[in-house]
Amino acid sequence: MADPANHQYDERIEFTRGLSSKDQVYAGVILNLNKKTVIQNRYDVTKQNSDFDKLFKYFLEGYPQYVAKVMTELDPEYLAQFLPKEEAKDDVTDVEVKTENAEVQAE
Question: Where in the chain are the domains?
């Protein structure tokens, strides 16, 4: 007999510029990373866990390679508050180096 306490969730994370109507129909959680707002959270019917910072931290911990990469480009200072102090310093330095290299290559 199956244990009713056992659940499996399939998650998918996607980054887009702009939302399609399909995104709003099928996505459980939609965050606007530029404005730091929660657009949609279907999993929180009580509206108690729709805090952007909490949801951002959840996705950062679950998908660090994707979330950190995007937020390093959008807002490295915001990202730094969620990283351990030493790691945050290294990430911001890396962004500055990448930016400088891009400018040098463009000249």
Answer: 21-106
